[in-house]
Specification:
The complex is a heterotrimer. By secondary structure, chain A is mainly alpha-helical. Chain A contains 3 helices and no strands. In chain A, helix 1 packs antiparallel against helix 2. The chains are: A mainly alpha, B mainly alpha, C mainly alpha.
Chain lengths: 103, 593, 221
């Protein structure tokens, strides 16, 4: 009764490897932030590192790398809609004449 | 006996053969889902999707009656320009409650949670939804949300309009706002759980042979709706949470006095609430597809166009929320883009209307009550849809925003659309759910009252709005009196129509004629079961070899199931839907029951 | 026909064909729920982005009040807990009951450490009068440094984002305690560990949210 196709079992070495990579990236992001890069490179570098960490967690800790493609599409779809929400809202907030009527 | 059955998900290199046989459903079933579990406690603790669907139906009907009663009160108040019998402050609370109840407690859950819960698993040939206990939980969450909303009435109530715009809603010292926002927050989870359940069910629990190109359009519609529910409702949840925090703690994100931006609230609110209107209408589209094919005895025109247009509406529907905010002070850039996208979202809907009408052409049309409602739907929803497009035109909207034109528009699409579709579905699936037929002549009379009453109520509102009558106004100037009075008379006619429906549906439960398994001769899978259905929906694992609208195929070929022993055997012999080739090879082995 | 207990184990619910269909359905259901969580937090991130785009100097100023060191420690703590929950799932898959229990315990412990650090962070700020909304009442030293008129909004966003995240951590702890108790009773094995798997997915999302919260709130220099 083999029903284990699709249940990928990660090795301890793999998991620890990803864990250590995430720690290194954390140290990296704190260091880069300390460099005081000019805007927008400070945000871009921080987000790039965060996205890398997120990818590692999603792909290897959450198992998307070995999982059915549909689950990955769900994650990507959610992010796509988030980006749509933010960018279209910014179309309003960044292009107003007055930001907000102040009191 | 049963030949080797492939384990699910195991893509065999050679298609294995399945033995199928015909299972014509019994005319008068002895054991049904209604008789297998009896008593109040059994109902309250059931995980059977059919019973949960009926409980939702009862709750939705209750809230509809309540909110409808409020509407009658409002319309009666508007008979004269000044006070008729309600105070101004009370009036504001009443229209707020009417709107909030109709949107959140009736329209959003109605078709998916009530009819969808009952019918979806049956259309997929499944025994239940993927997560039956979550299904029951979603019902109780819905009830709790309602209770919290009503608790707000005991705590000063709320009069902000159902949109809870800041800073009025965040400034109000009334505890009523906090209760109702909590109620809506809780209610959101009910919607999310239903959507999650449906998506998983549609992906994982289809019977053998139901490939994606054989999914009923009702299922496609529910699928698109569920996607919207899952993506949009959480944004409402966080908005409501932020609003509550703003009210309690004065956080300041939305209140200009504290440095915040009230238009930002509107962005967040409408990011959910516009897709919400698609949550309301898209399931209705699904019902129309089912009913129109059954009563034209013809396959649907443009299956993929209708299926994919539901997904297109779901997607584009997320991009147009700013058309509720044309006059709010948002940037000209955003305003222009939103207007353009709003015109775009009308296209997939238009495609559906054309395809439905094309389905009628050369069909053998039977004007039973469900079909009558379909025609009413097409007429009323088209008016609603067109006027929506007109509101999408920037220059026009500047004049029409916040007038009765908008009120008429959304009643045409929400009531003339969603509610009429709900009535069509209710009258279509009533024999399946209850095993009884209702009084057909009375039903047609009620439909007539509703159609006439609806137009008399809301057509004058278009004219009033165009002439400048603002919405949510307690007082008005004399020139609008004839319009308001006509509208009020219409609302009473509408009410009569609904009372007639209540009467004959209730009567049918006790004295109705026994319905056979398939009174409409539909080719849908849900009709190849007994009326009412078995506790497990089917007495066998259904096997599907045709599309759901293949009226040119004989009925026998829609009543197939795996040829195994009764009892637990069927559960294990069911193969994955991808083995449709395997199923086709078995048709030559079909034997009569 | 094959006998009932061999092909229809107790843990498989009646409407599922087999254990695998149930497992895959549970996973899909949890991923759909995670989509929902992403959009939920997404609203908060959207508010952050809108206000940061309007008042970049406010964010630079106000972020000085946040302790980067402890934020980084919390990041490490959560990453560690993600690792241990992944190890817990691995233990379940390999039928290692003891390993499962220990890994769950460590995950719970790390999650509690996160909350303790957060508690001290909040306490320190509230002590200085850096409170959300109408409770905004900074001490003179703080007010001298943080003189932007919209300062209360930054901290409104900060408190909302970290508090909602913290609430999710608490829920995660509760779920994992429940898992631990079930694991001790021997409910999980290589055939059935679905609750561990889907709770793990939830916990990884909590970690993911923090991975973005940390640089956005703490690392603005």
């Amino acid at each position: 009764m083999s029903e284990h196709h699709g249940h990928h079992i990660a090795s301890a070495k793999q998991l620890w490897g990803i864990g250590i990579a995430l720690l290194i990236l954390t140290v990296l992001t704190v260091t880069v932030a300390g460099l005081g890069l000019p805007s927008p490179f400070d945000i871009l570098s921080a987000m790039a590192i965060a996205l890398t960490k997120a990818f590692l967690v999603a792909a290897f800790f959450m198992g998307l790398y070995w999982d059915t493609k549909f689950n990955s599409m769900l994650l990507i779809g959610a992010l796509a809609f988030f980006i749509l929400m933010v960018s279209i809202t910014l179309l309003d907030t960044l292009y107003r004449d007055d930001v907000v009527p102040s009191f | 006996m049963a030949s080797a059955s492939p384990t699910a998900n195991n893509a065999a290199t050679t298609p294995t053969k399945l033995k199928v046989k015909r299972f014509p459903p019994a005319q008068t079933p002895t054991n049904t889902y209604l008789t297998d579990e009896k008593g109040v406690w059994a109902w309250l603790t059931t995980v059977d999707h059919k019973k949960i669907g009926l409980m939702y139906l009862g709750a939705v009907a209750f809230f509809f009656a309540l909110a409808g009663f409020l509407a009658i009160a409002l319309r009666t108040e508007l008979w004269t320009p000044a006070k008729t019998f309600i105070e101004a402050d009370t009036y504001n609370q009443l229209f707020t409650l009417h709107g909030a109840m109709m949107v959140f407690f009736v329209l959003v859950p109605s078709i998916p949670a009530a009819l969808g819960n009952f019918i979806l698993p049956m259309q997929l040939g499944a025994k239940d939804v993927a997560f039956p206990r979550l299904n029951l939980a979603s019902f109780y969450i819905y009830v709790f949300g309602a209770i919290f909303t009503f608790l707000s009435l005991a705590n000063n109530g709320f009069d902000t309009g159902w949109t809870f715009y800041t800073p009025y809603s965040s400034d109000s010292n009334s505890a009523g706002i906090i209760w109702v926002t909590l109620g809506v927050f809780i209610l959101g989870f009910s919607s999310i759980l239903t959507g999650t359940n449906f998506i998983t069910t549609i992906h994982k629990l289809r019977a053998p042979g139901i490939s994606w190109d054989r999914l009923p359009l009702n299922v496609w519609a529910l699928y698109a709706t569920s996607i919207i529910q899952v993506l949009a409702t959480p944004v409402l949840a966080i908005t409501i949470l932020l609003l509550a925090m703003e009210n309690i703690l004065d956080i300041g994100i939305f209140d200009p006095a504290l440095g915040g931006d009230p238009v930002l609230y509107q962005h967040f609110f409408w990011f959910y609430s516009h897709p919400a209107v698609y949550i309301m209408i898209v399931p209705g589209f699904g019902i129309i597809s089912e009913v129109i094919t059954t009563f034209s005895k013809k396959t649907i025109f443009g299956y993929w166009a209708i299926a994919l247009s539901s997904l297109a509406i779901a997607f584009i529907g997320f991009l147009v929320w700013g058309h509720h905010m044309f006059t709010s002070g948002q940037s000209a850039v955003a305003t222009t883009i939103f207007s353009f996208l709003t015109f775009l979202v009308g296209i997939p809907t238009g495609i559906k209307i054309f395809n439905w009408v094309a389905t009628l052409y050369r069909g053998s049309i039977s004007m039973k009550t469900p079909m009558l409602y379909v025609f009413i739907f097409i007429f009323l929803f088209s008016i609603g849809g067109f006027t929506g497009i007109m509101l999408g035109a920037l220059s026009v909207d500047i004049h029409l925003h916040d007038t009765y034109y908008v009120v008429a528009h959304f009643h045409y699409v929400m009531m003339g659309g969603t509610l009429i579709a709900l009535l069509a579905g209710l009258h279509y699936w009533w024999p399946k759910m209850t095993g009884k037929m209702y009084n057909e002549p009375l039903a047609k009379i009620a439909a007539g009252f509703i159609f006439v009453g609806f137009n008399v109520t809301f057509l004058p509102q278009f004219i009033m709005g165009a002439q400048g009558m603002p919405r949510r106004y307690y007082n008005y100037i004399d020139q609008f009196t004839p319009f308001h009075q006509t509208s009020t008379i219409g609302s009473y006619i509408l009410a009569v129509g609904f009372l007639i429906i209540l009467y004959y549906l209730a009567h049918s439960l006790f004295k109705g004629k026994q319905a056979g398994p398939n009174p409409w001769n539909s080719r849908g899978l849900e009709w190849q079961s007994t009326s009412p259905p078995d506790f497990h929906n089917f007495s066998h694992t259904p096997v599907v070899i045709h599309g759901p609208y293949d009226y040119h195929q004989p009925m026998e070929e829609f009543q197939l199931g795996l040829a195994v022993e009764h009892g637990h055997g069927e559960e294990h012999a069911a193969a994955d839907a991808t083995s449709s080739e395997a199923v086709e090879t078995a048709t030559s082995e079909t034997t009569e029951a | 026909m094959a006998n009932h207990s061999a092909t229809h184990p107790k843990h498989v619910h009646h409407h599922f064909v087999n254990s695998n269909q149930q497992f895959e359905s549970a996973k899909l259901g949890m991923w759909v729920f995670l989509v929902n969580e992403i959009l939920f937090f997404g609203g908060l991130f959207c508010a952050y982005i809108v206000f940061r785009a309007w008042y970049p100097e406010l964010f630079t100023q106000a972020a000085l009040e946040l302790n980067t060191f402890w934020g980084a420690v919390n990041t490490v703590v959560l990453i560690g807990s993600s690792l241990t929950v992944a190890m817990a799932i691995r233990s379940a898959q390999n039928n290692q009951k003891r390993g499962l229990e220990i890994n769950l315990l460590i995950t719970i412990l790390l999650a509690c450490v996160f909350l303790v650090i957060k508690y001290f962070e909040y306490e320190h700020k509230l002590h200085l009068g850096i409170a959300p909304g109408s409770f905004w009442n900074p001490t003179p030293e703080i007010a001298a440094v943080l003189d932007h008129p919209k300062a209360n909004i930054f901290f409104g966003i900060y408190y909302m984002m970290t508090a909602v995240h913290g609430l999710h951590v608490i829920i995660g702890i509760a779920l994992m305690v429940w898992l631990y108790l079930r694991a001790r009773k021997g409910h999980f094995n290589s055939e059935y560990y679905t609750p561990v798997e889907i709770t793990g997915l939830y916990w990884h999302l909590v970690d993911l949210i923090w991975i973005f919260l940390f640089p956005l709130l703490y690392l603005i220099e």
